[in-house]
Amino acid sequence: MTIAHNLGFPRIGERRELKKATEAYWKGDADYASLAATGAELRRSNWEKQKKAGIELIPSNDFSFYDQMLDQSCLVGNVPERFAWNGNNATIDVAFDMARGTREAIACEMTKWFDTNYHYLVPEFTRQTAFKLAGRKIFDEFEEAKAQGIITKPVMVGPATYLSLGKVTDDSGLDKFALADQLIPVYVEIAEKLAAAGAKWLQLDEPIFALDLNDAQREVIKKAYDALAGVKGIKIMVAHYFGELRDNIELFTSLPVAGLHIDAVRGVKEVETVATRLGGETVLSVGVVDGRNIWKTNLERAIGPLNMVRSKLGSDRLMVGPSCSLLHVPVTLRSETKLDDEFLNWLAFAEEKLDEIVFLAQAVDGNVDQAVLSTNQRAMVDRANSARIHDESVKKRVAAVTEDDYKRHSAYTERAQKQRGKLNLPAFPITTIGSFPQTAEVRKARADHKRGDLSDAGYNAFVEQQIVDAVKMQEKMGFDMLVHGEFERNDMVEYFGELLAGYAFTKFGWVQSYGSRYVKPPIIFGDVSRPEPMTVRWSKYAQSLTDKPMKGMLTGPVTMVEWAFVRDDQPRSETVKQVALAIRDEVVDLEAAGLAAIQIDEAAFREGLPLRQADWKAYLEWATASFRLTAGGVADETQVHTHMCYSEFNDIIEAIADMDADCISIETSRSQMELLDAFVKFNYPNEIGPGVYDIHSPRVPATQEMVDLLRKATQVLPPERIWVNPDCGLKTRGWAEVEQALIHMVDAARELRAAKAICVG
Ligand SMILES: Nc1nc2c(c(=O)[nH]1)N[C@@H](CNc1ccc(C(=O)N[C@@H](CCC(=O)N[C@@H](CCC(=O)N[C@@H](CCC(=O)O)C(=O)O)C(=O)O)C(=O)O)cc1)CN2
Ligand code: MET
Ligand SMILES: [Zn+2]
Fold first, then answer.
1. Secondary element (H or E) of residue 236
2. How many CA atoms lie within 13 A of 244 on its CB side?
3. Interior CA angle at 116 toward 620 and 672, to 5°?
4. Per-residue DSSP letters for 644-700?
5. Which residues are identified as catalytic?
6. Distance from the Cα of residue 595 to its chain's centroid
7. Fewest beta carbons less than 10 Å away: which of 235, 326, 588, 665?
8. Considering only CA atoms, which residue is closest to atom 2 of ligand 1?
9. Contact indicator for 728, 645 with CB cutoff of 8 Å
């Protein structure tokens, strides 16, 4: 019998119960018992949903109060020294300290999980690192499910992925892969304990199979699974997802384990090769239901590869699953009462995907539910032919784009001169990245407005008052280029998604981004255009309040697409081009409304980079082109900014230069300006605002720290091209810290100006 299998289920709850519980616990409004009870209820309900749907192999330990990588660090006792852990049981409080930092210890770094908008906490390794079994969560949750009558399949991040995604934080020159010899025995111990507890399967996630692997990584993989395969009484499944296996296919299929999972959405071409290569008794879990998108599976098409695998391996060696954990899609469509039936009929969230998996597992064994199949076929046809998807005027406009549309009139040096004349900025101009704190008051006003308890006029007046206050504050502090504060936006992507044609938005379609921070990715279902201006009224109003230049604030095309659920019926590059034209309209309108500077955020530019180097060039070409298309419609005098808030520019620095923004602000404070290396090495030609204030922490940096950072920057970059700004927007922070930190930032800029004046004088 083919098994209906799942890799992971969203942990946040249908109504963001997890967010509410964790934030209440952090604030001290709820005790541990209450937090634990919410966690237990979420797990119970998730297991029950899966069982009811007919999933036969149900995961456990896919739940987390914060992040699964962080949980893994706790499980193997890898808690950095600065957290003063007692060395016994790494509890949830230890995990929260690592995630959020304490008064004494800065938080662990957070970074993107492969090419998703999910962030994990980066494991830290030093000469002192010693692993040991230190967590109980995976065992407790297994017992919990058992008490509920379900023998689950515990899931954890595999040892090779764990080591690969961590980083060495001391200067010992340690080879992190050499830690495998210490780490693998802990994994073996965990597997043995789970076997003793009665677990039949253990899933180890190794998405690094989607990357270019080096020899050290291959060695770790071999060693780890040789050891783990030897554990008696439990079957090991290695799960690969997020891409094709390519040159890793041989290593993957030769692992001596009982089961393998493959991503049969992104890796559909490889299913046959994998199945052909599998020897002996190995079970293959075929992930045909897309865990990264929200479209209904084309069931008829999905049966094809399943039948093929069945014919090769037999149904006893076949499982059907999602391509990856369902963590990356919203929980359920049942709550989406606002969406119309036609559109609803195209979608499947996590719960609905469970039904698809079960249908397919039965279908491949010959039990085809004809009614389900024909409803599904009709949905596919309806969507493909829907008038809502196709907009001839958009298609025509895209086809008519010319080479010139991708270009500013003049080169940067000429533009810079004109902009200097117009903007008249001092040395080391001071600005921010866009958003100011999204206070409870701001969120409440928006919620009241949405609910209809606050009129349009009332809401607009409220937002205007926020802008007035923000402008006054920036003027008082001495900023040189102001922002309006983004108070009207729920999110930098969702806000635009609500205003663009071709995008739809959900009411409860939340997906975890990191910890208790979630996003509601809009859904791009059709050709995209901009029916009317989206930000002009707010930016124009803000500019009317001050003589200082106001920076218009937009989200760029790559980020608009990367952080949305995107249509799967045309290439991503085509969708991005449509979005670029829509945002270009807004850029042009902002200029016409008197905005002398416009920032186009491309926060997801790096994350959109394909996982395999061989695919980079093609991506970087269309991604940079889309930015130039967005920005290409304005005069030389209009200053175009962009912003990217992550590290690792080395790989893409030339592409960033190709974007030809007049100024780019980047995240650099945590890495002590290390990131600038790339800009220096490549001789980045335009202006740069290296972030001097780490906005991811509530900590207020001292003036001197920021002076030091700026001095570092002046040592490697021409001072006349340096801006002073924070790492990113300030929406997640509170006003008290922000005001303090910004005062320090302005003082720091002034100190540098004074030093420069002395030099020049
Ligand atoms: N899309 C996206 N991805 C991103 C980022 C980003 O800014 N956007 N930044 C990076 C880091 N990731 C982040 C992800 C989320 C948040 C964030 O702040 N999320 C908010 C939700 C933002 C939002 O949509 N807010 C809505 C809904 C707010 C809300 O919860 N309202 C209350 C009602 C409030 C009341 O009645 O008083 C409710 O519905 O219960 C709004 O402001 O309108 C959160 O989880 O708290 C920050 C950073 C990378 N990826
Ligand atoms: C995640 S990048 C954020 C950029 C946006 N303009 C902001 O300041 O919030
Ligand atoms: Zn940012």
1. strand 235-239
2. 13
3. 75
4. E--S--GGGHHHHHHH--SEEEE--TTTTTTTHHHHHHTT--SEEEE--S-TTSSPP
5. 696
6. 31
7. 588
8. 519
9. yes
pLDDT of residue 372: 97
The reply to whether domains 3-385 and 410-438+473-493+537-560+571-760 share a CATH topology is yes
* Residues in CB range of 318: below 8 A, 6 or more apart: 2, 3, 283, 284, 286, 306, 309, 310, 364
Q: Which atom of ligand 1 is nearest to the CA of 16?
A: 40
- Structure tokens of 231? 């554990």
Contact 307, 316 (CB under 8 A): no
Nearest-angstrom CA–CA distance, 327 and 526: 25
Please give the single-letter amino acid code of residue 693.
Y
Q: Relative to the CA of 729, which ligand 1 atom is closest?
A: 7
* Alpha-carbon distances, residue 2 vs 309, 321, 442, 463 (angstroms): 11, 11, 51, 56
Q: Which ligand 2 atom minimizes the distance to the CA of 432?
A: 8
Angle between helices 299-313 and 350-364 (to 10 degrees): 50
- What single DSSP character describes residue 410? S
In sequence order, what DSSP letters do the residues of 553-604 get, joined into one string?
EEE-HHHHHHTSB--SSS-HHHHHHHHHHHHHHHHHHHHHTT-SEEEEE-TT
| Beta bridge pairs of residue 701 | none
Angle ∠(268,269,275) on CA atoms, nearest 5: 85
Number of Cβ within 10 Å of residue 698's Cβ equals 16
Whether the complex's predicted ipTM is more than 0.90 is answered with yes
Name the CATH topology of 410-438+473-493+537-560+571-760.
TIM Barrel (3.20.20)
DSSP state of 248: G
CA distances from 403 to 126, 399, 409 (A): 51, 12, 12
Planar angle of CA 327, 331, 332, nearest 5 degrees? 150
Bridge partners of 263, per DSSP, are 287
- Is any ligand 2 atom within 6 A of the Cβ of residue 645? yes
Quote the crossing angle between the two packed helices 616-631 and 572-592, to the nearest 10°: 20
Q: Which residues surround ligand 3, an ion (CB under 5 A)?
A: 603, 645, 728
> Using N-to-C axis directions, what is the helix angle for 137-147 and 180-197, rounded to 10°?
20
Q: What is the mean pLDDT of each run of 10 residues along the chain (761 residues)?
A: 98 98 97 98 98 98 98 98 92 95 87 96 97 97 98 98 97 96 98 98 98 98 98 98 98 98 98 95 98 98 98 98 98 94 96 98 97 98 95 98 98 97 97 98 98 98 98 98 98 98 97 97 98 98 98 98 97 98 98 98 95 98 98 98 86 94 92 81 92 89 96 93 97 96 98 82 45
Residue nearest to atom 8 of ligand 2 (CA): 729
Q: If you measure from the C-alpha of residue 616 to the centroid of ligand 2, how many angstroms do you get, rounded to a whole number?
A: 25
Residue 699's pLDDT is 84
User: pTM for the full model?
Assistant: 0.96
Cα 741 to ligand 3 centre (Å): 17
- Please give all residues whose beta carbon lies within 6 A of any atom in ligand 1, as ranges: 117, 438, 440, 443-444, 446-447, 490-494, 513-514, 517-520, 563, 732
- Determine the pLDDT at residue 618: 98
In CATH, which of 3.20.20.210, 1.20.1440.230, 3.40.50.2000, 3.40.50.720 is domain 3-385?
3.20.20.210
Q: Residue with the nearest Cα to atom 2 of ligand 2?
A: 603
Measured N-to-C along each axis, helices 456-477 and 735-760 cross at an angle, to the nearest 10 degrees, of 40
